[in-house]
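Technical annex, item 7. During the second reporting period the consortium partners agreed on a shared format for inverse folding records so that results from different sites could be compared directly. Each record opens with the tokenized structure and is followed by the designed sequence. A conforming record, contributed by the partner at site C, is shown below for reference.
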């Protein structure tokens, strides 16, 4: 795998596209990103965490915009993680800053990170996915909004 990856997730971490779409996704993505050497489509029962690697800068509360410390965030991650099924529950957790109920996927990550049961992972051959390409992917995946993660 490349050192620079693009990971495409559905914004709804519980959702998976239907089987026909899943089967066709790789060919569709390969046509959109002809220079990509590795494209992997992952579907899991469990909700997995997809990080941005060394691109990580900070995390903010979406309600009051306070920066969460890495320690605070790890406590939230631990509270949501279920070791029995190796999955994140995506529960509504009270944030330590303002008490707002929020799931881990809705925190403001810089760079973007996310959670999901479906992911497209490929080497980054384009730098940044442009808005038209993102819109085409969203239409293909059943008009589902996507999160794009740049992992380095
Ligand atoms: Zn807050």
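Designed sequence (site C submission):
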């Amino acid at each position: 795998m490349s050192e620079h990856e693009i990971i495409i997730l559905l914004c709804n971490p519980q959702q998976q596209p239907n089987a026909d779409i899943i089967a066709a996704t790789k060919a569709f993505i390969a046509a959109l990103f002809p220079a990509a050497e590795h494209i992997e489509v992952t579907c899991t029962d469990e909700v997995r965490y997809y990080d941005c690697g060394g691109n990580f800068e900070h995390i903010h509360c979406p309600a009051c915009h306070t920066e969460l410390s890495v320690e605070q965030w790890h406590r939230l991650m631990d509270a949501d993680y279920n070791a029995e099924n190796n999955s994140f529950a995506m529960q509504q957790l009270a944030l330590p800053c303002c008490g707002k109920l929020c799931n881990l996927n809705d925190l403001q990550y810089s760079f973007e990170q996310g959670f999901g049961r479906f992911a497209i992972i490929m080497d980054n051959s384009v730098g940044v996915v442009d808005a038209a390409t993102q819109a085409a992917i969203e239409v293909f995946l059943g008009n589902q909004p996507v999160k794009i993660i740049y992992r380095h």
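The first strand starts at residue 5 and ends at 10. The first helix runs from residue 19 to 32. All partners now use this format for quarterly exchanges.
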